[in-house]
Amino acid sequence: MPELPEVETVRRTLRSLVQGKTIQEVVVGWPKMIKKPNDSDVFRLQLNDQKIHDIGRRGKFLMFHLDDYVLVSHLRMEGKYEMADGNEPDKHTHVRFFFSDETELRYKDVRKFGTMHLFVKGEEETELPLKQLGPEPYNDSVFTGAYLQRVCAKTNRDVKTVLLDQRAIAGLGNIYVDEALYQAGIRPDTVASTLSKKRINTLQKKITETIKDAVEKGGSSVRSYVNGNGEMGMFQLQLNVYGRRGEPCSVCGNEIMKTVVAGRGTHFCPHCQRN
């Protein structure tokens, strides 16, 4: 699933491709993808003649800011946007946006897990799915060491589960949680409430640094992720633990281990990361 850095990269690419365009027609090939309104025909009609003023992001969700509405799009596992190249759409193209300048944006999704919600402008932050999201992990004014201390202090869950909880922190996923915990020297299965103030402050800083670095590198192309121009991210070239089971740790030389934490495949160095 694309995480915050990948979605942010898609946002920036889409902004350069479709900002200022006016939607002339929308074709929905897979109505189950449209979650609000509950009628995909209403969805299509409401988008007619709407101009795209900006593309935003909240956690892992893209936000198309239109004249009267905000379209909230979740890519889930395999979703991606791309401009039409003149060829006929393939079987994985499920939503097509035709613009008044005769260009076309396509939403493709192999697994059909992606979702779209269309809100009247101003309502998007007060309803699901956005209203349940925690602060952004690189919003230094909100996501602070003190905030993370409060979140960890009131739970007996392991720290990885806490960090993956979108209600606590918006946008983190398996890749960047593993990487941030490695950078902070904390085992993923450590009970969050047992962490000292000092270690939590270090973790908060490493989360922020990891996310910012990944955004600068365009995210991680570890599966099928590419941005709106079909380009791969490059952060995967500097992953320390994720996807490196059996390889030597770049710091201590010990073997990177893989286990399951929070129901997710989890990578860590048993020497560099301690409870």
UniProtKB/TrEMBL annotation:
Binding site for DNA: H92, R111
GO MF, one example: double-stranded DNA binding
Pfam families: Fapy_DNA_glyco (PF01149), H2TH (PF06831), zf-FPG_IleRS (PF06827)
Coiled coil (UniProt feature): none
Ranges for domain FPG-type: 240-274
SUPFAM superfamilies associated with the record: Glucocorticoid receptor-like (DNA-binding domain), N-terminal domain of MutM-like DNA repair proteins, S13-like H2TH domain
Keywords, comma-separated and alphabetical: DNA damage, DNA repair, DNA-binding, Glycosidase, Hydrolase, Lyase, Metal-binding, Multifunctional enzyme, Zinc, Zinc-finger
One of the protein's GO biological processes: base-excision repair
Catalyzed reactions per annotation: Hydrolysis of DNA containing ring-opened 7-methylguanine residues, releasing 2,6-diamino-4-hydroxy-5-(N-methyl)formamidopyrimidine; 2'-deoxyribonucleotide-(2'-deoxyribose 5'-phosphate)-2'-deoxyribonucleotide-DNA = a 3'-end 2'-deoxyribonucleotide-(2,3-dehydro-2,3-deoxyribose 5'-phosphate)-DNA + a 5'-end 5'-phospho-2'-deoxyribonucleoside-DNA + H(+)
Homology family: Belongs to the FPG family.
HAMAP family, A to Z: Fapy_DNA_glycosyl
Described function: Involved in base excision repair of DNA damaged by oxidation or by mutagenic agents. Acts as DNA glycosylase that recognizes and removes damaged bases. Has a preference for oxidized purines, such as 7,8-dihydro-8-oxoguanine (8-oxoG). Has AP (apurinic/apyrimidinic) lyase activity and introduces nicks in the DNA strand. Cleaves the DNA backbone by beta-delta elimination to generate a single-strand break at the site of the removed base with both 3'- and 5'-phosphates.
Protein name: Formamidopyrimidine-DNA glycosylase
Organism for this UniProt entry: Salibacterium salarium
